[in-house]
Specification:
Order of helices and strands: HHEHHEE
Strand order of the largest sheet: 1-3-2
CATH topology of one domain: Arc Repressor Mutant, subunit A
Distance between the termini: 25 Å
CATH class of one domain: Mainly Alpha
Strand content: 5-15%
Number of helices: 4
Bound molecules: zinc ion
């Protein structure tokens, strides 16, 4: 299964020649590595060993799309977070730090 490198959703149509990106929006946001790094840091600081819903991570930050995308990348690509539920990530998904 191939996923968008920005938002982590299943890729149906690739909008990039170089990377795997599902939309113009993701293509644009994928370029901003500083934003990506800052959002990842914010998410990792919000999540501990206890389950927390994606909704509760988003609550304190208005960049919902960026946060959900970061959670997806941290689960699917970087493997720093795990999710409790099966299926695609949404606001109800519970996540926690992957124990080493
Ligand atoms: Zn995408």
């Amino acid at each position: 299964m191939v996923r968008c490198e920005y938002c982590g959703r299943i890729l149906h149509v690739n909008r990039s020649d170089k990377y795997l990106l599902c939309s113009k929006k993701c293509k644009q946001k994928f370029k901003n590595k500083i934003d990506i790094s800052n959002t990842n840091k914010f998410v990792l600081n919000s999540v501990g060993k206890e389950w927390i819903s994606v909704k509760n991570i988003v609550k304190s930050n208005k960049n919902k799309f960026e946060i959900v995308s970061s959670v997806s990348r941290l689960i699917y690509f970087e493997k720093k977070l795990i999710k409790k539920e099966k299926g695609e990530i949404n606001l109800k998904t519970n996540v926690s730090i992957k124990k080493k």
